[in-house]
Structure formats: C-alpha cells, structure tokens
Amino acid sequence: MSNAKQTIEAGKAILGIEFGSTRIKAVLIDENNAPISQGSHEWENQLVDGLWTYSIDAIWAGLQDCYADLRKNVKTEYGCEIKQLAAIGISAMMHGYMAFGKDQNILVPFRTWRNTNTAKAAADLSELFHFNIPLRWSISHVYQAILNGEEHVNKIDFLTTLAGYIHWQLTGKKVLGVGDASGMLPIDSNTNNYDAEMVAKFDQLIAPKNLGWKILDTLPQVLNAGEDAGTLTAEGAKKLDPSGTLQSGTP
Hints:
Elements: H1 2-9, E1 14-19, E2 23-29, E3 35-42, E4 46-48, E5 51-53, H2 56-78, E6 87-92, E7 98-100, H3 119-129, H4 138-147, E8 158-160, H5 162-171, E9 175-177, H6 178-181, E10 187-188, E11 193-194, H7 196-206, H8 215-218, E12 221-223, H9 234-240
Parallel strand pairs: 1-6, 9-12
Antiparallel strand pairs: 1-2, 2-3, 4-5, 7-8, 10-11
Helix pairs in contact: 3-4
C-alpha cells in the first residue's frame, strides 16, 4: 500500500478512462501496470428523435462523477490526493457521429454506435470505395446526414469520436490514435493516414452539394502510438476534476 501511495504522491500514477455503453470507468495504475484504484459511473443512452444518444451534459456529468469516485477511493484507501499524473488515456465506445460547428458546439446530438440508420450511405460508400464501410463508422453517418439533407451539414467544422471529443476538450488537440481514426475513414497502412484515394472520391461525391468543406478539413489528425498528443490544459484539468486538485501538464 505504501508503494502505491508513494506512486500517487510522486505524480507517477497513470489514469485510464473508458466510456462504455452502460458505465464510465476510471482505473489508476502504477509504473508496472498494476492497478492502484478505480472509480465508475453508470449511465444509459437515450432515444431522442429516433436516434440513440448521450447528451453533452450527461457525458461531462458522468466523467466528473467517475473521476470523483476514483478520487474518493484513493483518499479512503491511501489517505492522499491525486494532484499530478504521469499519463492519461481515453477510450470510448466505437465511432458514431459527433459533428461540431466553428463555435465548437455540437450541431446535432451525439449519434452513438447503436444507430443503424445509415444503410444507404454505407452501401453507397462501400461500392464507391471498393471497401466494406460499416453502418456505424463516422463516414457513413456524415454521408447519411448529407443524403438526408440535414440542415447542419453545411455548418460542420470538426468531426470526431467520443474519445476524440474528450481528448480535444482536455488537451485542446484535435487528434486521434490511428486505431480510432480507422473507424472514421479507412486508413492507408503505408502512410498511417486516411486513405488518399477514398478521400478524393468522397470529396468528388459531395462536391455538387457545395457544403463549403472537404472531408480532410473536418477530420482529426491521425497519430501513431508514442507520438505527442498534447497535454492536459488547466481548463481540461478543471473539466475532469472540478475540485481543482488535479494539476495540468499531464501527457
């Protein structure tokens, strides 16, 4: 126990947060990947206008409650506070659709992986790309919204996943790991970036709509494991831990 306490107090603990479909989980581990403590928050998606969603308010309330549960458990188990961390990692349920405008506000409620209203788009894109595009991938969602003539599509400034959204809000960086990015738009394994041929085909497909953007303008930057993905900002630390105990600077 004393070793775990020393790890926490030295700022060497690593925090992993996972947004599952029914529970948000936070796990604190040491340098040897041994669990130190954990916290959780249970939640449920809502059916709004025929689509499964979690509200932005529910996302942040859930994250903060999950972290507060972890913080409480650390105080109970080790009698100390989490002031600094060695690293933070975010993972979340697969893909879906989060579209933001230039004001950084979400344009339509988060469409989760459970939504399968994208059959037409997925079929069209699979044929266009000569590559199987699942219903739940972000590119299917955005193209279905375009096919539906949804009012928000010409206002899109940024598309990301739930994990990408949380990372952006905590660090200010619009980035995704290559694995998560591959479910937004297929990745070229030679370049470890979005497939350039598919990008060109998609832009050509939507050009007649005169939306005012091209797909690469809206997607997160793709990063490989080990690359700099930013650090926790002061604003991000406050969003994660409203008590103000957690300090900024964590990668």
